[in-house]
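One example given next:
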Amino acid sequence: MPYPISRQSTLQPVQKQRLRRAARPAGEIPMPESHEVLVVSDGVRTYRSDQKRMGPSEEHVLSATSYSIVDMRKDRPIAVQMPIQSDGVEEFTLRVTFRCSVTDPEAVAQSGHADLSELLLAYVKGYHRIRQIGLQHAVEAVALAQDDALTELSIYANAKPPMFYGMHVELLGVEVLNPAGVLEEKQQQEEQLKEHRRKHFEMELERETIERRRAFEQVDLKYTRDRTLADQRFETDLDREKTDYAHEKRQRDLAADLRHAQIFARETADDPYAVISYALARGELNSAELLRRIDHVDQRRQEIEQEDRQRRHAWETTNDNREWEAHKDRLAFEREMALKRQELETTREGRGWELRREEVRLKIESENRLQQFELGREDRDWERRKDELRLEQEKELRLQQLQSARDERDWADRKVRQEWQQEKERYELQMVLEREKDRREAKLSLLRGLIERGHTDQIPMNEVVEQMIGELAVSEPSIEPPSPADLPPALETSSDQVPERDSD
């Protein structure tokens, strides 16, 4: 995500309406997060969300022509890197980290620089000595190159600190990476990416397997729940039928008992034997009538018993029919449940086969992907080997060029040194001649002064003159001094420029 401006765009001013209140459409200006500040501008003035309301119907929001969302997090580290040449053909990688904080979001929004890393990279490249740091060290001397880079950039940051509108930026750290470190870091990133992809693929496969397993478990749970509900419904119906049957049986028993009670009460209340005995005692009933009535009573009792047996037989027949119907319903329900169970088993086997087939397909697809990855890795290895060979050839060519340049510089240095040595010898010879000439002139001047002052009467002047003449003859050089044309420009002297004599 870019820093310090995470999002920015232009807006169209909203036209005001007479009948209703004007407002911007929802979502046209995104809401900032807790560490961000929304800055809107109408081209002349700017407004911040932490100082002014940003409702969709506010006047400054309606007239805004652009908005920017500024990241206000303190001490945000921003790293930039660039290659620098070593003393060989390989290159260092210079990574500079800065600590950045936004101090004025309105100035940042007006500047319009969304990504600060480009400006920081330009700031680092603006230091003229940054590319000369690596040329002083071999590619193996990373620590020395890093120390030099830290020293140079610290001096540069103190002398010319990075200044950006509305930002406080200071140097945080400097790192120098060799190509092996960069390659190792890239390899680690690739391995991490491969591991992440592999884990993502395994997680996706596991998630899909878990979803399928959950789907099958839900089907099994639904089948079990349906079966349980059907069993519960069957048991409830059976219990209800048993309850109805028991209730009906109790009602019939109660009715039969009631009828028996009525008959008993009626027979007891009439007391036929007492009546018969009373009738016989009064003579109103003869023995023939008594026998007839006894036979009638026995016949009536037999009829009642016959009716009871018929009712009991009919009730037992009805009960057997109900039990048979319930048994048939139970058998039909069990057959239906068996069919449903068989269908579910068939469906489960089919889904299991689909799951196994899908697992086989995913396994084949994974193997194909691994093969493609292996082929791609072989291609990348071949490309890397070709790059290494190319780099080795370039390195050898660069070494040859450097050796040739070094030989040329050494030859030029030797030539300049020889010329300088010759000029130095000429200058020393000239100085010796000049000193001898001055010494002779001084002695002649001294001799003339002694003669002019008349000191010849005090010392034997003949001996002095002869001694000085002898010394001058001995000190006369046997080689001719070089002409002014032979001396270097800086060593040429005119006849008027005579060196001062020594005080001696």
Observations:
- The longest strand covers residues 91-102.
- The CA atoms of residues 212 and 251 lie 57 Å apart.
- The chain has a mean pLDDT of 78.
- Residues 287-453 form the longest helix (167 residues).
